[in-house]
Amino acid sequence: MMHDQIIEKYTFETGVYRPPSEGGSNSLLIRATRNCPWNKCTFCAMYKTEKFEIRSAEDIKRDIDSISAMANELKAISLERGFGGAINRDVIIEMIGRHPDLDTSHGFVMVIGWLQSGARTAFLQDANSLIMDTEKLVDILKYLRASFPTIERVTTYARSRTLARKDLQELIEIRKAGLDRLHVGLETGDDTLLKRVKKGSSSQDHITGGKKAMEAGFQLSEYWMPGLGGKEAWASHAKDTARVLNEINPHYIRSRPFYPAPGTPMYETYARGEWVPLSPCETLLELKHMIEALDVTSKVCFDHAGNHWTNRNGRLLFSQSYEGYKFPEMKPAVVKLIEEGMAIC
């Protein structure tokens, strides 16, 4: 009976996906929703066999309580062993000795990393937390912040169309409750391409949603996909993406180069020869056109393994820092890097 209670005490849900910047900061992962409410994008392999669900506030709070109890026991062991609260190997081994089921728990590994990094950031999973009822989301955010006072930043994914439809005052309430940063998949500003990939948002949705998020006081990361248009639409993809980003002027612009993923409709289109990919050098040319057309004060980031172009020394062309290159000050340097990469293609 006692064993069952221990398993229940430290049971909580953890989803699979989070932005690379949240992995880099060892964010605490709190699952507010399961999977994606849209789930129709032809380029995306995530969530495709899963049903979207909004979790109850009670279940989410129970997860937070479980993580809090786990963190408290780890710290108590550390203090008992004379480590001053530090979570080291000896503390982890003793915790697993007390609760053997934790030895195969991915959530336990996540919490250890979060605590060891200072317990400063948290990420609400899965794909679109803002679709939740505002009052409920505000309640969860306040509970999360009260449970973990060390948290300095809370982030989540959001869809542009959800932001565009959400009342501004509701977004302000969510921001004040403790949600700091939104990660939004722009992908492209080309309306024809947006329809082709079934994004479910127009360029105007992206602009309206992005500007509303900025007005509400969120830090905003917008993600775009170099190469998504292929040989047919690269020019309009670059031009219209820059146009939309100029309108929004988000805090971060993050590059996620597109590669057809097996099992997706886009891959099938590619396999049939109906979508022709750009070469690495052609993608850099597209990137050059987009970057040159940017008129923003954003940080432009290449913080993803897909940005694997190299320079003349065989090293990565771009820094993969989560903070990227500050525009407009570093725009000439980024253009110069692109030209260096193109020169050795």
What does the largest sheet look like? 8 strands, mixed
Overall radius of gyration = 22 Å
Estimate the helix proportion, in percent. 40-55%
Summarize model confidence as the mean pLDDT. 94
The count of helical stretches stands at: 14
Query: Per DSSP, what share of the residues sits in E-state strands of 2 or more residues?
Result: 5-15%
* Helix-strand pattern: HHEEEHHHEHEHHEHHEHEHHEEH
User: Which term fits the overall shape?
Assistant: globular
Number of DSSP strands?
A: 10
**Unreliably modeled segments:** 1-7
Which class do the helix and strand fractions yield? alpha/beta
Gap between N and C termini: 65 Å
Q: Strand order, main sheet: write it out.
A: 1-4-5-6-7-8-9-10
Your description of this structure?
The protein has 345 residues and is of the alpha/beta class. Helix 3 (57-80) crosses helix 4 (89-98) and helix 6 (134-147) runs parallel beside helix 8 (168-177). The protein has helices at 2-9, 20-24, 57-80, 89-98, 106-116, 134-147, 160-165, 168-177, 191-196, 203-216, 230-248, 265-271, 280-293, 331-343; strands at residues 28-31, 33-34, 53-54, 121-125, 153-158, 181-187, 219-224, 252-255, 299-301, 325-326.
Labels describing this entry:
14 helices, 47% helix, eight-stranded mixed β-sheet, 345 residues, disordered N terminus, alpha/beta, two-stranded antiparallel sheet
How would you summarize what this structure contains?
By secondary structure, the chain is of the alpha/beta class.
